[in-house]
Design brief:
Chain lengths: 724, 724
């Protein structure tokens, strides 16, 4: 918030310490060439601001619609699920492109547990009529990709294998509370096939809860009330789910992320001399229940034949009849799933542009590249976008404007099956990342429309807001910031969410305590369906291929500021404010009469944190205003800055989730998606274990006190030049 | 709130001033025979409380399921729309029954403007296919009434006549804001047939707004999202709208209520020697647009063939496709309506039980009896219920327990076509009612299920709460009050709503300023359809015919307390509190930064009102605790009490609604249903005429000051026995 982010199109112009020749070109681009009395940038010495702005202007000029489109078409023209030959070809394209851009490319390979390709996954009515149910998208004349012979029917990765025929019970979204209500209503799932609609939680929990309730199978279908015709005109005329659109997806619900056989360890390949330890598969809590995903055009055949009592309030979906809880004995459904698992080789492709001054401070941007089908929107808009970032940064480096810190551009494999590629890489590089990781920016599904949004760690919020303020939105005369938080909104700043589960930031943020964020320009999605192809993308996500380059500019500015600042430009003031807000929200969840959630000691610990954060911000600003400190002093201060967020890492992890170690932000373990701020305390509140609160308060007091101490050291370091 | 309403089943036992013999029977019923130190009843001298409780116990023993059912079957076995021969037979049954019960019966006849019976009302697709659209309910084997040959297709009373074929535009609920959004979207209604779904406003406004927008016709249909399968299993298996359920109803939107030709005047019959003045029909703003109501099983044929752009957010209904705004040129619909209007004789049937001591103080309970078809639920559950009340009161009178004040039991005709019967009667008796009217209780649609609810004037709220506390709920061991405001709810008291538009209380409450309330036990409704018959009623509304007698007991207690109290038991303390709440809500509607709604003078006027109300309550309670005042003193005090609410009557009426004269509570003139508290001010806020606020504030200050003065007179009257 220290930056002049409310001024649209501010592109200062000047010459920095390096790359004088390259900046000749910049001067042409920089319009209007404003001179401004006090242009500031958080973490930058005043004399370096104009240079940084010039570099950013140069970067912004590099991404083009043509290149973005070329990348996306190269990546997303064939279905390329993890483990497939097509996916290996994508990896090669990514590596070649980054090498050509001047990055050093690492191919990190792992052997991980994956389902075999094209598993058997079928559903059919048995009585009152025999009726096989379609579970693959229709071939559409409007969409030539839909006829690709390498496409297959929908399935859920890590489904149990089995062959069952049984009556059905509708379980709404299959959330914890839905199964609780069924128990209250006296409806038994034992021996039944549960029918759940997508939405409300991570699909793996639908299977877990159904299994625990005694079901022998599960159908998960896409209800038209949750993204189908109730939300707009279906594909191909419109962009909502059609009657044949199937959502694929993983069912893993282990208490750790990544490869199921190697918790906490990198899944080195079987021919790698480095040792790893694989669990016997029998010891891994994999789903046993056969699960088949269906589109609503097929689910209707089951649901409209149900004959039991009407559903409770809120359970009705968008199909044209009153939903019922039980199917009755005259309706039976057959599910058949064969899904053998085996070790499969996956490849992360990581490009590195080593920092010119501080190579041991890493800023990482990443996006997975494996996809359930073509992946045009999920994830490869993001893939093509970070390739554009890599090319732009590579070009700057070739022009002598190499970043001061190291920037890595990472393409993760096998995210769709359980966030596997990034997790294995994080586990392999755990110590190095803990020592060097400045920030992780996740680009999964980051280019699908015109609407900017972000979620992330408090320390990165100011930077995101500032970056959005200097990039033009391609649809209007406004900056991205202005479309995000229009003057009419009257909000002091736009809302930036918390990072939940479901993508590759988890290893960095939740496991290692590296500040992370996800930024996106979003719009349309036919989530995890075969229609997530270039025809859909060009029609509904980014028709002019301009949102991709725009997103590359925003992320590029974020990376450059993190890489080039004299002192890491974390938004330090938000540590105490955001923490206090989360604490307040947690108290409100327990009701006003709770005495168990006093948390007096934690409240007391926040006072010093507030003071220490304010002092550190002031010290950072003032030390930069004086003659630029020596590189040694900057290095020492940045070392402290880089370590701040690690205060939140509890080595033993969260309750029941040892791999998730950030005390600051976790994932709701009962639905797998929602962010849970202060998850150690939140877990006790949600599970009504208020007697555990005191012990967890101690962990939080320690973390806050540790962070306070680090901030105080930073202030001392900055205030006392004599120490070097 | 002064009463011991939290004690379940409290039936005190004792002997009052009259009817000693009759009370012998009561003693048997009164279990347990509690003696209580300080049993009090608002408005009753202490020595009269036990007698009143005994009378109430006696009344409660009289209504029976058998009699209630017999009445309902006599009334609702044939369709009996206003003006039909069957309806005349119903009127005769009502008159006979009340005469037999000992009431003096008046048949008040009027000649009013009504559509002829069985008008032409058809809709059909013309292109792309010729397809007549069904607009009458299916004959069902489960419901013998559905085959009654006197049933007809759905129509909307006071539709324009016409024969049009045109393209269609979907207008959502056809609210003011829906048409405004269409204008914003650049969608023209000119020359088009509008298709609106029921809900969101009074149907007459759909026609008015469509007509103003240039439409040449209107279809109004029942969307399954608004009371069809989305809300539960359809009729006959369940109680929601089926694919053939049509909602009938009037379209009148005049700026006065009642007969269209005789605003403010009683529509005396053409052979009545008393003069009246009828407007030439050309001078009456009757709807010109042809309007046809359809069930969703027919509307789907139009809606699924539309081809234009997707609808805005919130416009999607429950049919299984994405709704569109425009139909396009390939889809045309034909509407044909022939609905000649003419003078029709209607009959109100009003029974009177003259008061033993204060015959010039009237308490009125009323319900219309005309119906769109059988009317089992709307309104005749209420009709049979107030017949039960009449019989119980008549029996008490025969037993020597005649009420001290006059009670009238009124059966109104032609409510469905525009609240006509009650309005004409009110207009005929305007001066007498203004002088004598203590309270009006409306019983329209008051018996359709187990759930108690109420809406009404502040002064009647305490009485309603108290009455619900002494009547047993037939489904449980609890009182009605306890089912209404269960201990678990933690609410200090149950919510009692404000009276809006749409029924017979309007003449009394809004035109004359007589405190009014509506009480009901509600549950199921197939609103204004042919299925509102005894088969539906017995299955889903009141299967054991017990809710009817229960409702009769509650209303009976309310009437008796109003009739027998020494001083009228109005809840005086709520005048200032409710007024202040409404004022606060009004301020919140204008936003926090409004300076136009300061209303300082009105705020200042509320202070003295608070004091005067508190003083009056104290005076009433203390004067009754001393030796009973003389009848003359009581009469004088009651005269003041009875006049209090008239302070709110503004003779010139509300903005644009001269007939609606209560400044305290009005009807939203843009949707016809919602209650608008403080309607004079509310109108200025809603229409953004804030420059008018000051003038209306003056009206309110005068009303509040007038009410304050009346309360002060009351206190003086009660404190100063020397005045008599």
């Amino acid at each position: 918030m220290a930056e002049t982010r409310r001024t649209p199109g501010e592109i200062g112009c000047g010459v920095g310490a390096t790359g004088l020749a390259a900046l000749a070109a910049v001067l042409v681009l920089a319009v209007p060439a404003l001179t401004r009395a006090a242009d500031t940038l958080t973490g930058f010495a005043p004399q370096r601001v104009r240079g940084e702005r010039a570099i950013e202007a140069r970067l912004q000029a590099l991404p083009t619609a043509a290149a973005y489109r070329r990348h996306l078409e190269a990546i997303a023209s064939e279905p390329h699920v993890a483990g497939s030959r097509a996916n290996t070809q994508v990896a090669e394209y990514l590596a070649r492109t980054m090498e050509a851009a001047g990055l050093t490319v690492e191919r990190a390979v792992y052997d991980v547990l994956l389902p075999r390709l094209n598993p058997v996954s079928t559903a059919a009515l048995v009585t009152p009529v025999r009726l096989p149910l379609n579970n693959q998208e229709y071939v559409l004349p409007e969409d030539p990709y839909s006829a690709n012979p390498n496409l297959g029917p929908g399935y859920n990765a890590f489904s149990g294998s089995g062959d069952v025929t049984a009556e059905v019970v509708y379980v709404n979204y299959g959330r914890r509370e839905d199964f609780a209500l069924l128990r209250q209503l006296g409806v038994s799932l034992i021996g039944k096939i549960a029918v759940a609609r997508y939405g409300g939680n991570y699909r793996g929990y639908k299977a877990k809860f159904a299994s625990e309730a005694g079901a022998v199978g599960l159908v998960i279908y896409s209800d038209p009330a949750d993204g189908g015709y109730m939300a707009g005109i279906p594909y191909p005329e419109g962009k909502t789910n059609s009657a044949s659109t199937v959502q694929r997806g993983s069912l893993l619900t282990l208490d750790y992320t990544g490869d199921a056989l190697t918790p906490f360890l990198p899944a080195f390949t079987t021919d790698d001399p480095r040792p790893t330890r694989r669990l016997p598969i029998e010891q891994v809590a994999l789903p046993k229940l056969p699960v088949v995903p269906l589109p609503y055009g097929s689910a209707i055949e089951i649901l409209q034949r149900m004959r039991g009592q009407a559903v409770p309030g809120g359970w009705q979906g968008g199909l044209p009849f009153a939903y019922r809880v039980e199917g009755g004995s005259e309706l039976t459904v057959h599910l058949h799933v064969e899904q053998p698992l085996g070790l499969t080789r996956i490849t992360d492709v990581v490009g590195t542009l080593a920092g010119a001054e501080f190579p041991d401070e890493w800023i990482i941007i990443g996006c997975h590249y494996d996809a359930w089908s073509f992946g045009a929107e999920d994830p490869n808009g993001g893939t093509a976008m970070i390739l554009s970032v890599a090319e732009a940064l590579g070009q700057l480096a070739k022009d002598g404007l190499r970043p001061r810190r190291t920037i890595k551009v990472a393409h993760w494999d096998a995210e769709e099956c359980g966030i596997i590629g990034s997790t294995e890489w994080v586990e392999e590089h755990r110590d190095e990342l803990a020592a060097k990781g400045v920030a992780y920016i996740n680009a999964d599904v980051s280019v699908s429309g015109p609407h900017f949004g972000a979620a992330g760690a408090p320390t990165l919020k100011g930077l995101i807001i500032a970056a959005a303020g200097v990039v033009q939105h391609p649809d209007t005369a406004l900056t991205v910031y202005q479309t995000w938080n229009p003057p009419a909104s009257k909000a002091a700043e736009p809302g930036i969410g918390d990072l939940g589960g479901g993508s590759d930031h988890l290893g960095f943020y939740s496991h290692l305590g590296i500040p992370a964020a996800a930024l996106s320009l979003s719009g349309a999605s036919l989530y995890h369906s075969n229609y997530d192809d270039l025809a859909f993308y060009a029609r509904f996500c980014d028709p002019r291929f301009e949102y991709g380059p725009t997103m590359a500019r925003i992320d590029g500015v974020v990376l450059l500021r993190l890489a080039n600042a004299d002192l890491l430009p974390y938004d330090l003031g938000r540590y105490p404010t955001d923490f206090a807000l989360h604490l307040q929200a947690l108290r409100e969840r327990t009701g006003h009469d709770s005495t168990a959630l006093q948390l007096t000691r934690l409240d007391q610990a926040l006072g010093p944190l507030r003071e220490a954060a304010a002092a550190a911000v002031a010290a950072r600003d003032s030390v930069l205003a004086s003659p630029v400190p020596s590189p040694e002093r900057l290095r020492a201060a940045n070392r402290i800055l880089l370590g701040l967020e690690r205060s939140f890492v509890l080595p033993t992890g969260l309750p029941g989730r040892p791999w998730n170690r950030s005390l600051y932000m976790g994932v709701n373990p009962f639905n797998g998606y929602d962010a849970w701020p202060l998850p150690g305390l939140r877990h006790q509140v949600e599970t009504n274990q208020l007697d555990q609160v005191a012990a967890w308060e101690e962990h939080y007091v320690k973390a806050v006190t540790d962070l306070t101490g680090r901030l105080q050291s930073l202030t001392t370091e900055l205030a006392n030049p004599a120490s070097h």
